[in-house]
Amino acid sequence: MQKAGLEILPSFSIKFPEYSVITPYSKFEYTLRGLKVSEEEALKSSLLLPNKFSEHLNDVLYSVMIKKPEEIKTKEDFLKKNTLKDRDALMFALYHVTYKDVHPYELTCSQCSEKNNVKINFLNSFSVTFWDQPELALSKEVMVKLEQAEQLTFVVGLPSLFEEQQMLNDLSAVSDKERQKKVALLPIKYILIDIASAKKQDKIVDRINIQRVYDDLPVSDRKLIDKALKDNFEKYGSTIKVISNCQKCRAEINTEIDLVNQFFRAMYE
What we know:
By secondary structure, the protein is of the alpha+beta class. It is built from ten helices and 14 strands. The strands form five sheets. A four-stranded antiparallel beta sheet has the order 9-10-11-12. A three-stranded antiparallel beta sheet has the order 3-4-5. The chain starts with a strand and ends with a helix.
């Protein structure tokens, strides 16, 4: 429509597809709509700013939520009450309503190294194992008494999106490798050090000091920490598992597809 030489854009509406998902750890139900072009472009641009990537991703996820649980009234609520693995489930929901579910994929056989080109229906391959313990997932802390570094007790738990975003905002001048390591150490909440002479424990909460102590641990003690995390937290979450047979040797191929990588792979197809 034109008026006095100016084009006036008439009002119109677009009905976006919607999809609901229950997050595995927080067990909140969210309904998400598909991405707009501008939102997809914003996510692509965020890949160029690694320290801001998680913040941009969280912003987009929050903006596409058309239904949220009663407990989530603000973006800060969303960040503080959801884990990183909860975000993976939300990313799958966003992937499902924005992109097609059937995609070509290359699976490598572990027996003969043959590369198999297959088509995978990601919706049919998606599954969720929900947190089933009485306490809230983000409230649970597990104490890991080390064996060789016997004065040390590592306390581990699930990090929230808020903790991750806070830490990344302070890491503008570190390498990608260092950034990834710091995120990987977020499940270490704090360290207790026995002070025999004072008959007390010192509590280490500074992230730099936590990493320093961790880097000096014997490998066997690091494995104790990994086992505690695996036994208490890692059996839950959302996964895309694919079972296929090698086209060359017919061996069974079991593959777990990374939700985050697949999401961004779809953006560029």
